[in-house]
Amino acid sequence: MKLFRLLLAVLLLAVVLPASAARTIASGEDLMRHDGRIYPAADAAFPAGYSDIARWRQGRAALPRVSQFGGSYWLVAEVRNDSSVAGWVVAPGSVLFDQAAIRVYGSDGSVQSLASGYRADYQYALHYGQRIRIAPGASAAIVARIDSPFYQAPPSLRLFAESEYRHQSTLENSLILASLGALGALAVFNLFVHLMKPDRATWCYALYLLVFLVAWAQEFHLPAHLLGWHNLHWLYVPFFLLALPHTAFYVEFLQLRQHFPRLAKLSRINYVLPLLLLPSTVLALPYAPVLATLAISVWLSLALFCGIASLRAGVRQARYFVLASCALMVPATLILPSNFGLVAPPVYNPELLTLLGGTLDALLLAFALAHKLRLLVQDKELAMQQLNRSIIQAHTDHLTGIANRHAFDDQLALRHAAAHAGKEEGGLALLLIDLDGLKAVNDRDGHARGDALLRDFAHGLRQLLRAGIGVYRLGGDEFTILAPAGDVDCMLAALRQLESALRQRGYPQAGASVGWATAAEAPSSDAMLALADRRMYQHKNARRRAHAGDVLAATGR
Length: 557
Known about the structure:
19 helices, Immunoglobulin-like, four-stranded antiparallel sheet, six-stranded mixed sheet, Alpha-Beta Plaits, alpha+beta
């Protein structure tokens, strides 16, 4: 019988004690996941003291969870401080909620009253934590009345050692401000890039960054901190608008209209859906988080799909876009289900994780734009090289390799005008040359031998090239030289040497009939060419008469 009574007492203790015993504090642990209770808050009356909590809880029906569409709730948790630390911080969740009134009841009879949430004063910048004291070895009950028009995730009660929370909040604030600063710097930089070289993709990217910056600045309460502006109706407006500039960016950046016109049309849903759901921020605020999550999920999924399709199609700049989309999609995959109320947030500060993913996304998109610009520069350089080759080919005689008639006409007009303006040092002379003997070589040895004669003659002319001297083939057996007027005698002597060299190479009938004129003698470039042409034929006829006289003398007639 005694043994039975002992066993019954043990069973009663096993049932009763866990329900009433305070939980040992573990820094950072969510108390609501274990012994915490949630009650609907139909009233605003707190317990009178620590000993009154059990009576206060009687008649209140505990709830398994809060509604994500808002409401008022009591959160109650009991803790025991078995450490030597007396300074603690109570943090009623990391995700945004409107307001919370908190009281900490100590087993020693002390009562601490606190306020937290979006509308409260902050003891730690960008964080909800409020300092409390729980003496070592003491127990305490934490009662919080939380009110909010929506809950992005189930509210929680966490206790941190004050030194740990201070370090953690400082680290998180550094990451938050660094991320927001990076977003702002990238946005401003790309706006300047757009002003210097207008490009739709750069403009949309900069606009996307600015909207992203505003969205997360509001999420981390910067307007509330800096301006005292508390208005939850504006909180989700930039989150709804995020899809618009980003979609315009990737449609342009991935060239969807050219490569995937159907995906470009399908992407219009990212314009229509957010704008249709945007009025919920005013008309149905409790539903705004879920609707924004829906619009964001559609946008991110479609953007990633378009990026992968473009990458598979060989769009070179798509690889950075896909990496950027994954950087944003990975934290979104972890966080967005909790926004739908499907699961609890997998990390303590899901907003920070998403902001870091978004900042990495922005940096990778910057690399994507830089890569696109590099590809454009490469294409431009190739086009310029091709253009230069085309220009050279257009100004070059393909048989002889020297400049052609087109190049000669351009240079003659420019240099004649410069000579008459006094800008052509030493004046300008034009030597018009007719290569004699070409027809005889073609008739006797064939056109291949005639082409060789043309190339050899052009090679000899090319040796004359230096500053101020240009050599050209006008066509057929006609060549010309543009040179300073003072170099005419030198050019004539060089042509006589070239004539002798051609005869020694097996062209016995080769010769050069030359006529020259100066710019000072002609009022126009055409007149200058005509004068040289007349003199060239005079020289040719004189050479023919001289040759005929030599033949007669040789035959004794």
